[in-house]
């Protein structure tokens, strides 16, 4: 291949040399040279080589520069000075520039007025919806339904691409055991298996079968890596995890996302053990590119190249820029350091031109792959915007996704669903008519006016007379002056519904809390309402696990709705009135009190395993060691019984697999969906192993009285761990298989693995 490729490049250079005008103040081209060049070639690598060789250093650095849009009432736009930069070839992509109109306008400048006419990439944080907003990712993770996650990502992508977006900064695959950290709302919770399954599904949803389609976007696995483990739960804080935890807990979701084809990675704002991720050559160039053979685009987080100075590993912008690009960070989001300093770094010999060329070529490949050199305007389209944005189909999907995301935490005496004879309902709590909070953080272009609040959803149901009393001025308030109004309303109603939790901006980026108990006087409000004797249930809207010991002791029924999105109101009403039977399970442990954090299900046994009430065991003096609601917990309006799990063999040899079956019966009188969970435990190994590790889930809808068999297969991959030398291995011995309805409610069987210790290498993702 190398001879024709080199020859083509030489010939093209000769052909195109008459176009080789100096970059600065060049005459605007009437049409794009880059696009014309692409049309004469049909080989990506030849094209990328040719175009790179035509570029000045400043134009190359331009491809690596990403800037944000500015926001006004008319939508996002680009300031005049930055438009000039685009003409000068000093910008490769924009952050948060969207809508067909705004993206076309900038694309025209890049393609028709810059010297080489290289099209821009438009990137946006399409995290859980574009304009139709789906449940927050932590909520959607509660569905344990990867196909749902794929479908919502797909729908969001249809909307975003109509608005001109090529690249999303999602999925966020930061596993986290730290509910004080506000960004848990963006992820899939605490478990590596669930995070990995959902990472794959979301990448497939965003990218579809091919990023070449004009209805797909490039996905970004972020924030690489360990960002979900900040010290003290404080956002951006230091991370210091062991290599083993990194490889077994935090890296698997990234591996899954890249294996699913994610075209881009964003490093985290954090450091790991003294090395800021934006300068982490060992993990970016070393692990991602060399070991995992992945060759997509690494985009910095917002100003994070500049932040290398704040971290204290660079004294100048130039040093920060050189360290970042040498570690493998291709695109500099917002800081402008690459554009401003790397030419000096190259000219002074501090940075090799090849480093710049490699980064530029990764960006150009991405532009080729999404089809921008075929037609730079193929994404944004006003007609498509009208057709797909907030379409009935997307709203319907948002409602389904919200149904599946809700978790029934508690339901004493079948308080829920509300009885048919409930004719009057007192809706209480400041969040009930908050149409913004139901969208959650990172709601892209979602708008409160498109969304249906919980109150509105309940009012839209016929046959129920709804009275609304906020009770408190807002969720953080301790002013209880109006609680008496709530009490009066509850006294006069057949049933009361508390809608409580956190406002949307109490989770998300830079939204850490030191106490994850219910904020403000909401607990007092709940006690006063329940004190009326009127049957009371509560709906929670929040973006993180909360410590709900007080509420649990007060209210007979608690429905965790997270932030359900645009269709929150109808979806919550469907579940409260029993049209939909809740099936969600917790993707993250709910502690009893904040002080138990970090508390997660896949912990180690310790040398003194916890036994409540015994001295010198791994327990607390003041609180039980167990969580309030464990990982995988979630009730239904019906009940399920489980047979004992069966394995296909008592003994298998290394490299074989074992099948596991369990019969699940709906023993109640309503149809319901159960999420059957399978965990494994390796009780004796050369390295201590967690007491349980999720390895499979099955969602199964069962009619009353119906029994179905859930089937799982365990392979060596499911039993492997990082051994004493950090190699991935299986060790022979006895394994436990635990199957049940939550991590804390399982039945156990065992099988034996025979043979000798064997390596189980990770599958390596295929380079894009
Ligand atoms: C900062 C966030 O950490 C990141 O997730 C996001 O993609 C960028 N800002 C761009 O909005």
The structural class is alpha/beta
Strand content: 15-25%
Integer average pLDDT: 95
Number of domains: 3
Can you summarize the main beta sheet?
6 strands, mixed
Instruction: List unreliable stretches of 5+ residues.
Output: 1-30
Question: Can you describe what's shown?
Answer:
The protein has about 775 residues and is an alpha/beta fold. The protein folds into three domains: about 5-385, Alpha-Beta Barrel (TIM Barrel), CATH 3.20.20; about 410-595, Glycoside hydrolase family 3 C-terminal domain (Rossmann fold, 3-Layer(aba) Sandwich), CATH 3.40.50; about 640-760, Immunoglobulin-like, CATH 2.60.40.10. Helix content is about 30%, strand content about 20%. The protein has 24 helices and 30 strands. A six-stranded mixed beta sheet has the order 13-18-17-16-14-15. A five-stranded parallel beta sheet has the order 6-5-4-1-12. A five-stranded mixed beta sheet has the order 21-29-28-23-24. A hairpin with a 2-residue loop joins strand 9 and strand 10 (about 275). Helix 3 (about 45-55) packs across helix 16 (about 355-370), helix 4 (about 55-65) packs antiparallel against helix 15 (about 335-345) and helix 14 packs across helix 15 (about 335-345). The model is unreliable at about 1-30 (pLDDT under 50). Bound molecules: 1-deoxynojirimycin. 1-deoxynojirimycin (NOJ) binds near residues 95, 125, 222, 302 and 509.
């Amino acid at each position: 291949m190398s001879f024709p490729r080199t020859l083509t490049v030489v010939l093209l250079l000769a052909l195109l040399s008459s176009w080789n005008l100096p970059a600065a103040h060049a005459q605007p081209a009437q049409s794009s040279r880059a696009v014309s060049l692409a049309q004469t070639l049909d080989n990506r690598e030849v094209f990328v080589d040719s175009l790179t060789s035509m570029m000045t250093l400043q134009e190359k650095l331009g491809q690596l520069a990403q800037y944000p849009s500015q926001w006004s009432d008319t939508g996002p736009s680009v300031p005049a000075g930055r438009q000039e930069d685009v003409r000068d070839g000093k910008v490769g992509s924009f952050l948060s520039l969207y809508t067909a109109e705004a993206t076309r306008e900038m694309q025209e400048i890049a393609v028709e007025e810059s010297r080489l006419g290289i099209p821009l990439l438009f990137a946006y944080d399409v995290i859980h919806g574009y304009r139709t907003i789906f449940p927050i990712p932590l909520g959607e993770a509660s569905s344990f339904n990867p196909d749902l996650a794929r479908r919502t990502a797909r729908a969001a992508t249809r909307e975003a691409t109509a608005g001109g977006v090529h690249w999303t900064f999602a999925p966020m695959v930061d596993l986290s055991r730290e509910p004080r950290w506000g960004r848990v709302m963006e992820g899939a919770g605490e478990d590596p298996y669930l995070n990995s399954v959902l990472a794959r599904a979301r990448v497939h949803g965003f990218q579809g079968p091919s990023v070449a389609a004009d209805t797909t976007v490039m996905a970004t696995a972020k924030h690489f890596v360990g960002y979900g483990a900040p010290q003290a739960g404080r956002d951006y804080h230091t991370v210091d995890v062991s290599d083993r935890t990194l490889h077994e807990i935090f890296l698997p979701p990234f591996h899954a996302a890249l294996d699913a084809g994610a075209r881009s990675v964003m490093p985290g704002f954090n450091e790991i053990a003294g090395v800021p991720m934006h300068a982490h050559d060992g993990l970016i160039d070393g692990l991602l590119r060399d070991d995992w053979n992945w060759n997509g685009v690494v985009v910095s987080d917002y100003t994070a190249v500049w932040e290398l100075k704040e971290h204290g590993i660079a004294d100048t912008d130039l040093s920060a820029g050189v360290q970042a690009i040498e570690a493998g960070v291709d695109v500099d989001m917002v800081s402008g350091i690459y554009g401003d300093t790397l030419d000096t770094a190259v000219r002074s010999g501090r940075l090799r031109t090849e480093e710049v060329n490699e980064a530029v070529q990764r960006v150009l490949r991405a532009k080729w792959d999404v089809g921008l050199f075929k037609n730079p305007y193929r994404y944004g389209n006003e007609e498509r915007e009208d057709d797909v944005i907030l379409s009935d189909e997307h709203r319907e999907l948002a409602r389904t996704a919200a149904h599946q995301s809700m978790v029934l935490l508690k339901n004493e005496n079948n308080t829920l669903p509300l009885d048919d004879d409930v004719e009057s309902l007192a809706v209480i709590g400041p969040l009930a008519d908050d149409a913004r909070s139901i969208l959650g953080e990172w709601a892209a272009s979602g708008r409160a006016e498109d969304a249906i609040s919980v109150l509105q959803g309940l009012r839209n149901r016929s046959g129920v007379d709804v009275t609304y009393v906020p009770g408190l001025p807002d969720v953080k308030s301790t002013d209880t002056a109006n609680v008496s109004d709530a009490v009066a309303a509850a006294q006069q109603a057949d049933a009361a519904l508390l809608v409580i939790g956190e406002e949307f901006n109490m989770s998300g980026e830079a939204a850490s809390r030191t106490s994850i108990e219910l904020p403000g006087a909401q607990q007092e409000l709940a006690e006063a309402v329940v004190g009326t004797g009127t049957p009371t249930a509560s709906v929670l809207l929040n973006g993180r696990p909360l410590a709900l010991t007080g509420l649990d002791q007060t209210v007979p029924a608690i429905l965790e709705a997270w932030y359900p999105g645009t269709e929150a109101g109808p979806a919550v009403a469907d579940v409260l009135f029993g049209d939909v039977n809740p099936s969600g399970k917790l993707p993250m442990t709910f502690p009893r009190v904040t002080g138990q954090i970090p508390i997660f299900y896949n912990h180690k046994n310790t040398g003194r395993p916890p036994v409540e009430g015994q001295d010198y065991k791994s327990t607390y003096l003041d609180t039980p060691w167990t969580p309030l609601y464990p990982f995988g917990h979630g009730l239904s309006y019906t009940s399920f019984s489980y047979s004992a799990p069966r394995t296909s063999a008592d003994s298998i040899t290394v490299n074989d697999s074992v099948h596991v079956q369990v019969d699940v019966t709906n023993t109640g009188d309503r149809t319901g969906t159960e999420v059957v969970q399978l965990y494994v435990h390796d009780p004796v190994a050369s390295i201590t192993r967690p007491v349980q590790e999720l390895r499979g889930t099955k969602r199964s809808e069962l009619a009353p009285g119906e029994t179905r068999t859930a089937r799982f297969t365990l392979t060596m991959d499911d039993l492997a761990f990082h051994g004493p030398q950090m190699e991935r291995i299986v060790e022979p011995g006895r394994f436990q298989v635990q199957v049940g309805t939550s991590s804390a409610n399982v039945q156990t069987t065992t099988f034996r693995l025979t043979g000798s210790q064997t390596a189980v290498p990770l599958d390596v993702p295929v380079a894009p």
